[in-house]
Amino acid sequence: MAEHSDSHGDDYRKNSLSLWGAVSLGTGVMIGAGIFALTGQVADLAKDWFVMAFMAGGVIAGFSAYSYVKLTQAYPSAGGIAMFLSKAYGKGSLTAIFSLLMYFSMVINESLVARTFASYSSQVINYEAQWLIPALAVGLIAFAFFINILNNEFIQTFSFVMAVIKALGIIMLAIGGLWASGIDFESISVIPQDAGAGGVLAGVALSILAYKGFTTITNSGDEIKEPKKNVARAIVISLFICGGAYLLVTLAVGSSLSINEIVQAKDYALAEAARPVYGKIGLWITVGFAIIATVSGVIASAFAVSRMLAMLTKMELVPHSHFGMPGSIQKHTLVYTVVMAMLLAAFFDLGRIASLGAIFYIIMDIAIHWGVFRYLRKDVNANPIILLTAIVLDVVVLTAFIYIKWESDPLIIWTALIGIFLISVGEVIFLKYKRETN
């Protein structure tokens, strides 16, 4: 392992985040890019139950949050997911494998948001070409890289301001859309007509991605004032705010478009929903908010993901090479993260990117719950029934999602399996080599 100076630890400042600062951080990550990217994707799976799928995803995220809250209360730290996993499984291959699944799900999410930016931006560009969307997505990731090599204060301030703008904008558009459409929900039903139970559950699995940003709050651990009390409050408040925003947005889309229209425009469903309600001006406004949401989302994501890989590097759970690059480890991991995100954004469409992210994230989430249940529940004073419920819910939606994708797009499942296999084998070999050479 190469030796380099690294200053990223200076980013952590105890008691630097208030309760509402933490809430702003969580909602800023969750609201925006996820709902822009996933509304049409979830509707494609859950059909006229897509609103219910988003709400069910919020419920499952609430059960999932329980483990993270308990862990953060017991071990308030900026160490994040890798630190939690190491507490449960030790500093070995299981911690490394599940941490990398989380890392790659975050890289995939970065690509998802970049591809969403491209899909929405293309709606106001009078030019059609197959290369346009991947080119726009890769360009945004490159822009995020250059922003991320600036100072951290600029990144944090920029991300916070953009989070406020996009949250207020999305809620405003949703309420306006509902009012203008007469609150008529023709494409929404409480009885699934076009989708089977498997499709609805698969939609729920995908919708979980729109809520997983609450882990950003747990990663802030000891940066939050009175973490033992305020981390839990921040997560609960953030989930309620996001659930309310998602309910408004999905109802607004369902009142403006039929299910077939939502599915047909699934990569830019919110922009399409604005056309009949607001006309061309509404389309431009919606695309503008989408651009704000996705640009700020990719910048924040690149920053957080590179920090996570740098942390895994410092824990000596992953190999590291500087390839002749100057600077800190975090700058190197930023380069690796950006390159991987560019490749995904260039060669995978939105649906496939989102599917990979859902599979990796839910598997990691199950590992967190099982680790707490099996090894830490007494230490963190966790309720075993809630932990087991979270595991069962994750397993059910993941199983349904894999089944539906195996029937419709087996390449996604093969890609996920190969990815997990390569991560697992690579980690076992690396850690064995490291033990033998120490």
UniProtKB/TrEMBL annotation:
Mark the transmembrane ranges. 17-37, 49-69, 89-109, 129-150, 157-179, 191-211, 231-253, 281-305, 333-350, 356-373, 385-406, 412-431
Extract the InterPro entries matched here.
Answer: AA/rel_permease1, APC_superfamily
Q: Which GO terms describe its cellular component?
A: plasma membrane
Residues forming coiled coils: none
Q: Which GO terms describe its molecular function?
A: transmembrane transporter activity
What is the name attached to this protein's record? Answer: Amino acid permease
Taxonomic lineage is: Bacteria, Pseudomonadati, Pseudomonadota, Gammaproteobacteria, Alteromonadales
Q: Tell where it localizes.
A: Cell membrane
The annotated topology with respect to the bilayer is:
Multi-pass membrane protein
Question: Which keywords label this protein?
Answer: Cell membrane, Membrane, Transmembrane, Transmembrane helix
List the Pfam families: AA_permease_2
